[in-house]
């Protein structure tokens, strides 16, 4: 079977694929002048994340909670003390390695250090080690963390080049790094650690890491797992987001109110209705530019002086 101990694939990769499909179908955000991101003349600064201190605090809290997320997948401490302890150590090493690797990458690359991307580099290591945390040696966890930072940075830039506006880089972080984590378990899973985690026979010949001399049986299962995770997330997301985008359910109440106010909706084409009311996934351009905190929630998310 597939080694995906705490869900790099079934949790993170599936969610990341869904996030990528959703971002693509919603489309790029608009800047304050109504120009779509990545279009000529858009102001990239309008899309920069803010509050780096709060974001960093949130990331550190998430890192702490990840110990429960990964270690609790042992389904108990009694009789699994060695597994839980190993999970905690490899989780720490992967996160630290990915965070440090991201910092070094920003020193080498001709780009300004962005706190948001530094945070995501750290989280990339956590996502990637989640699959193999009980079956990886300490050095292997460090390797996974270093590669996770590189995969995140590369896939994030690739998404932007493709015109996909993913506000929190969920597809790159969870989708790509989740897939990496599942594959790295096939490359670096230790035979003895597989036995201690999953029982006798789990680390038999051909069923542990390829790079450790284990053959391709384990790697084959991991590749199949990645393909199934990706296909499931892609198919379900296309159906769900596609149906929502074409539906009128989200803005039906607003259309009814407009009719009550005297607007004859039969005079409008579907394209004109979408422009006026938005679609099932996105509000109209006017409301997006004014902010849905005002148009939908009747209040300012930030005081006017900020």
Descriptive report:
- By secondary structure, the chain is an all-alpha fold.
- Helix content is 62%, strand content 0%.
- It is built from twelve helices and no strands.
- The chain starts with 7 loop residues before the first helix and ends in an 11-residue tail after the last helix.
- The whole-number mean of residue pLDDT values reads 88
Low-confidence stretches at least 5 residues in length (pLDDT < 50)?
A: none
The outline comes out as elongated
Strand content: under 5%
Number of helical stretches of at least 4 residues: 12
How many strands in all?
Answer: 0
Strand pairing plus helix content: what structural class?
A: mainly alpha
Q: Helical proportion?
A: 55-70%
What is the CA–CA distance across the termini?
53 Å
- Radius of gyration from CA coordinates: 23 Å
- Order of helical and strand elements: HHHHHHHHHHHH
Largest sheet: none
